[in-house]
Amino acid sequence: MDKQLNYAKSFKDSSLVKGIVEEIRKSTTRPWVIMEICGGQTHAIMQFGLDQLLPAEIELVHGPGCPVCVTPLDQIDRAHAVAALPNVIFCTFGDMLRVPGSHTDLFKLKAQGSQVKVVYSPLDAVKIAQENPDKEIVFFAIGFETTVPANASSILQAKALGLKNFSILVSQVCVPPAMHAILSSPANRVQAFLAAGHVCTVMGYWEYHSIAAQYEVPVVITGFEPLDLLQGIMQTVKQLETGQYTVENAYPRAVQESGNLVAQKMINTIFEACDRNWRGIGMIPSSGLMLRKEFDFFNAENRFNVDHIQTRESEICIAGEILQGIKKPSHCSAFGTLCSPTNPLGAPMVSSEGACSAYYRFARDLSII
Ligand code: SF4
Question: Does residue 309 lie within any of the structural domains?
Answer without folding.
Answer: no
